[in-house]
Amino acid sequence: MRLLQFSTSHYCRKARLALGYKQIPYDVENLTPGAHVLKLKPLTGLKTVPVLLPELPGEPIAIADSTRILQFLERYQPEPPLFLIDRAKQTEAELLEDWLDESIGTATRFVYYDFRRDEGKHIDPSFASQLVIQVVRWQYDMNPAAVDLARQRLTIAIAALADRWQSNPYLVGDRLSVADIAAAALLSPLALIPQYRQNNGWLFERICEIHHLCREPLPPGLQSSSIE
Ligand SMILES: N[C@@H](CCC(=O)N[C@@H](CS)C(=O)NCC(=O)O)C(=O)O
After folding, report:
1. What is the tens place of the pLDDT at every residue in 18-71?
2. I need a surface site. Which of 23, 57, 77, 208 has the fewest CB within 10 A?
3. Whose CA is nearest to atom 2 of ligand 1?
4. Quick check: 176 pLDDT over 50?
5. Binding site membership of 108 for ligand 1 (Cβ less than 6 Å)
6. DSSP one-letter code for 228
């Protein structure tokens, strides 16, 4: 299998966590932002990564969207399962996954890129990096009002996740689910932002645990921390 990705994308991290959990061998192909559209549009009709190319007879050529990729992986290799046996719990996990994908992953992106152009500029002050940050901010229309809304959304999300994750290793039920994978990936960029790190140690502990379970290298900011 081949994963088309941007190396820094938190949605691509979500796909890698699932591949790692199931121990499915795969190669990655890192696309160049901008030029990626030329490759992806004809393949999937969309312009986002991750895209999985199963490269297997009888399987689709390309699967776009992290949620679809997780569904495909569950069908292709059911063990170890990412879907919960209890139907109601699985639906709850899918709802959380969708909320994390559609709302929280985007809010994280807004807050993260705002940080990287301001207090976090020292992480990579190079012209090339700051140019990418400016382009992404322009692409997603990241103005101060939108960043403020995103911050508020993250505050509510972290409080909601705390109710589940602080006292239980899993967000739903007693096993890893698509909800845990989505949360671990889509909130991981916050590990570089001191304000989030200082106030939510439990969150980054869970993110590390899930990366270990999935045999995926820890995200930037957690790589050599005491949490590890
Ligand atoms: N819902 C999609 C979102 C993926 C997504 O937003 N990917 C971003 C990278 S983090 C992307 O490919 N952006 C490029 C573009 O929109 O042209 C998923 O879960 O796969």
Report:
1. 999 999 999 999 999 889 999 999 999 999 999 999 999 999 999 999 999 999
2. 57
3. 65
4. yes
5. no
6. -
CA distance 203 to 184: 9
Collapsing DSSP to helix, strand or coil, 10 comes out as helix
pLDDT digit string (tens) for 102-149? Answer: 999 999 999 999 999 999 999 999 999 999 999 999 999 999 999 999
β pairing state of 51-53 and 63-64: antiparallel
Residue with CA nearest ligand 1 atom 9: 9
Q: Which of 48, 49, 73 is the best mutation target for the ligand 1 pocket, counting ligand atoms within 8 Å of the beta carbon and taking the most? A: 48
3-state DSSP: the chain helix, strand, coil percent, rounded to 5? Answer: 60, 5, 35
CB contact set of 122 (below 8 Å; sequence gap of 6+): none
For 169-187, letters b (16+ CB in 10 Å) and e give: ebbbbebbbbbbbbbbbbb
Hey, what long-range contacts does 55-58 have (CB within 8 A, 24 or more apart)?
55/1, 55/2, 56/1
Q: Is the shortest distance between the CB of 21 and ligand 1 below 6 Å? A: no
